[in-house]
Structures are given as C-alpha cells and as structure tokens.
Amino acid sequence: MLTFIRSGPVLKLEGELTIFEAGEARARLREELHQAPLELDLSGVTEVDTAGIQVLLWLKREGKAAGTPVPFGNHSPAVVEVLDLLHLTGAFGDTLVIAPTSHPS
C-alpha cells in the first residue's frame, strides 16, 4: 500500500512503490504535477521495484517537459539500493544522501 502526504510543495510517499501500486501512483502523481511546485520526499518508501522506478522516471520526464522540474529528496535506503543496483543513481539529477552505516568493530 502506498500513501501520499502533501505538505506545501512536498509530497511524501509512504509504503511500497511496486508494480502493484504503479498505476495508482502514476495517476496520483499526474494530478499532483498540475499543482506545482512539487517536490517528492522518498523517505517513507519501504520497497520499490522496476515498475516503481519507471513511475519516478516518468515523473521526472513529465515535470521537465511541463517546465516544472520535480526534485526528489530524502531517498529511503530501499530506493537508494534499487537505484544503485540499476546504475541509475545519477539518472535523476538529484542529490543522494547516503546515511553512514555502522560497522562492527
């Protein structure tokens, strides 16, 4: 299940962004794109697959085409992991902040 929480220009996604939520996510994000400015907070995304990544790529492209770029921020570890796996960390043009991991001493 995916939840959308709007606070000013920031839209926070919480939950899974997979093939099961991709259609709903795309429809909702299409509506939100018309309420620019829009910033996407990905800190609450717990799981993402290639369908979810396609939605994010689509949103980037649509925002740019409409002249209202959509920055993504606060990428969750799940999002960073998939972007890294797919070698897409630089494709979105957003700054990724990777939290330090604790290493056993």
UniProtKB/TrEMBL annotation:
Residues 10-105 form the STAS domain. InterPro entries: MlaB-like_STAS, MlaB_ABC_Transporter, STAS_dom, STAS_dom_sf. It comes from the Bacteria. This is Chemotaxis locus antisigma factor antagonist. It comes from Mesoterricola sediminis. The lineage of its organism: Bacteria, Pseudomonadati, Acidobacteriota, Holophagae, Holophagales.
